[in-house]
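Figure 6 in text form: structure in, sequence out.
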């Protein structure tokens, strides 16, 4: 199974999100973070991610006669190669998986005891902006500059993990400069 196929599934994508930031988690701990997915389904998807090299076993220990494994995300394998040629159908599948994972993660957040969207500064605004190619590249560079340094953050007291999903695509073709 190639990386696109591995990551283009909402449950597997949620497992990847849960393990970001250097976390080491058991399947039981993953289940606590993804409570709406059955235990059997979660185990199956973790095994697929391990088999595909996206996850690796970081630790093993015996617990009441069974082997408990902690999994680690392999950052270098948890992304689609930006140079990989993707078809429109590949993009459609990837986007569908990402939005399904986002909807499921948001539903799980709302279902959690004590969730408070206002206090947690939850946001899901959409903006339609007019940009030239130069302005678009500047916007993308600015977003990368703001986000990239925080990707290395790990769990720490006072920190909560947030799911940040920048989505950017043209909603109409560029205006014809001669049609004014």
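Output sequence:
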């Amino acid at each position: 199974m190639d990386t696109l196929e591995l990551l283009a599934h909402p449950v597997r994508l949620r497992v990847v999100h849960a393990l970001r930031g250097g976390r080491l988690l058991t399947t039981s701990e993953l289940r606590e973070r993804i409570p709406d997915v059955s235990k059997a389904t979660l185990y199956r998807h973790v095994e697929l991610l391990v088999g595909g090299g996206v996850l690796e076993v970081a630790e093993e220990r015996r617990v009441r006669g069974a082997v408990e494994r902690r999994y680690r995300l392999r950052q270098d394998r948890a992304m689609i190669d930006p140079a990989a040629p993707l078809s429109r159908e590949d993009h459609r599948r990837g986007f569908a998986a990402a939005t399904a994972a986002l909807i499921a993660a948001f539903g799980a957040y709302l279902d959690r005891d004590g969730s408070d969207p206002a206090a947690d500064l939850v946001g899901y605004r959409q903006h339609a902006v007019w940009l030239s190619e130069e302005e678009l590249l500047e916007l993308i560079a600015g977003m990368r500059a703001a986000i990239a340094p925080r990707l290395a953050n790990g769990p720490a007291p006072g920190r909560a993990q947030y799911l940040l999903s920048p989505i950017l695509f043209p909603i109409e073709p560029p205006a014809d400069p001669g049609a004014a």
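Caption detail: Strands lie at 24-25, 55-63, 66-73.
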